[in-house]
Amino acid sequence: MSRMHWIAAAALAATACGGDPPAPVPPVPVTVVQVGSSSDDPGATRYSGAIKADESVDVAFRVSGIVDAITQVRGADGRLRAIQDGDPVRKGQVLARLRQAEYRDQVSDADATLRQAEADYERASQLYENRSISKAEYDAAYARYTASQARRSQSAISLGDATLRAPLDGVILSRSAQVGSLAGPTAAAFSLADTRVVKVVFGVPDVVVARLKLGQTLPIQAEALPNARLEGRITRISPSADPNSRVFEVEAALPNPQGRLKVGMLATLQLGGEVRNTEILVPLAAIVRPAGDTASYAVYVVADSAGMRARLRPVRLGQVSGNLIAVREGLRAGERVIVRGATIVTDGQTVQILH
Fold first, then answer.
1. Which domains, and CATH codes, for the chain?
2. What is the DSSP string of 188-243?
């Protein structure tokens, strides 16, 4: 063996016997939920829904122009600022104005034209009475006069439309108008909502919708207000199911005088008599398919005794309830199930729970 071949073989042997060990695999960050029974009430099911405004409207200028001013209010720091998302408004309150010089000029021009047309009409009336002009000339003077009146009225309306006012009492959800920007009828400048009463919109299957009635009261919980006791009243039940999800949309209204419930918050409500008390509810995002098995379902459970490792657990599923699903077999109350990260971990992999 040549000297170069001997050196290469020695290097390979040293690498095989005494090289650096492979770097440890970092734990996968996941979020978990601790599952429990479906409800304190045997046979009860929770449904999730979004909080919406009882009444909302997009407000736009009826005429086009450059935004000249946006109403100013005093902010939390004591300085004046333009009204913005979350600010309360009153019906009739000015929100913004366009540059009005052009519209004022139109009103002045229409006023002058109207005065001239009125004088011509009065003169034509006297001449017609004296039979000095024909009926056609009199009618033409009258037509110019009425047209000038209409033009004056329209120019005054346009001038008024250059000022945008709130059509209802409520809060500003969004504002797209900016000073110096072009605004007009095709783009909403503000979105307003009346949130003194809000509604929770949720979907239920056909076996549940038959038990619901207009005016029925329901206990509601807002995730952002866990200690608040809320009660909603059903105000609308959809007469037909959604063609994709096959659930019926239901609205429940609840008072919100202090404005604690915000548009877009999540809320849950409890309905009885659908899921048995032996079932456990888990988020749909926690359900996975075992590798190589397209007919079964499983979840990943994290237990302290397992050294913070994810363990695949086959489960038997029940009915879907909103964004939750019932697990009839395979889980025990109190176990921690991976929700975010369930699709990227593997059985036995080390995980890090995010709080």
1. 28-42+277-353 (2.40.420.20), 44-54+194-272 (2.40.30.170), 67-99+168-191 (no CATH), 101-161 (1.10.287.470)
2. -SEEEEEEEEEEEEEEE-HHHHTT--TT-EEEEEETTEEEEEEEEEEEEE-SS--T
